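From the thread on structure requests for the teaching lab: each student submitted one protein with a one-line request. Submission from student K.M.:

"Model Uroporphyrinogen decarboxylase from Capsella rubella, tokens only."
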Amino acid sequence: MSILQVSTSSLSSSTLLSISPIKSLSSPKSSRLIRCSVEGTTVTEPKLSATSEPLLLRAAKGEVVDRPPVWLMRQAGRYMKSYQTLCEKYPSFRDRSENADLVVEISLQPWKVFKPDGVILFSDILTPLSGMNIPFDIVKGKGPIIFNPPQSAADVAQVREFIPEESVPYVGEALKRLRNEVGNESAVLGFVGAPFTLSSYVIEGGSSKNFTQIKRLAFSQPKVLHALLKKFTTSMITYIRYQADSGAQAVQIFDSWATELSPVDFEEFSLPYLKQIVDAVKQTHPNLPLILYASGSGGLLERLARTGVDVVSLDWTVDMAEGRDRLGRDIAVQGNVDPGVLFGSKEFITSRIHDTVKKAGRDKHILNLGHGIKVGTPEENVAHFFEVAKGLRY
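Reply posted by the TA:
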């Protein structure tokens, strides 16, 4: 593989990288140039015609592309000054994430500045809980709080099947508007939580460090946990379909806490339910790319591939080249720059981007971080990340 190498030897740490316009691999009759200006620097690249699929979708499907598409997990959020200003007016996370107008505005904040190849819905994996008769809140400084964690079969029986049209109509409305706003210049991404991760939050009563409660239930009352997992599985199948029908062109499944399981327990409490979700969604939406992310997944990579998803998103603790070898070339990969790299110099950020893309190889790679952007990340460094990434050519 040959990647355009951009010299950074003459750049100071405060200078943005300048990338010369590069001839598009597509026909000049079907494309035109689009300029993205960040801090006085312009990146020029071909703009897709109205009938072309977004770059991210083509890469996920294994089509030949001229550069890896790029977006960042948590790209809409607390590191952006525009988001911080909005939070002053709307301090409650749920107020911001359960109002279609605000969801659209926040989702588009990074799009308007950086023009990523993926525009992800601003929401939370716990958003469906209220519609499933699981009261919760997300409190600043504390995170999610589940008010009545289920502890028995009777408690699980009170959990309702999720009907998104009734419970979260603002999600559907926001996705429709996002799709209309970005057209095919970027892929609109939806997302859901995986059954085990959702169950972990619910059983633990919120975030956890040791996952004592969920493991106690798994190992002492497995039937109760399986009953809850089944309800989340059915509900997430419905939710993914709803998001796709509303405008999402790809959906990422977050199984953040599945890596707290040993491999044998992952095969009982997570893998079968992920496979059920993928199989069911593919029956109705065969062309919808599904992305799976699980932080700290180095010990489970081969098992993640067995879920049948189109893309496995690697965290930064896995070497990209080794991850590629372990997953095989039939599946696309996403990631996996350490989010902490964005605190480094611009030269350092550039070198890590090049290293990741080189190791990922020519096809089926979506450039991203190995986790969400950290609070306090310099916004100008995020701009630099996108600028360098969008200037790469295979």
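TA comment: The first helix runs from residue 55 to 60. Residues 11 and 17 are 7 Å apart (CA to CA).
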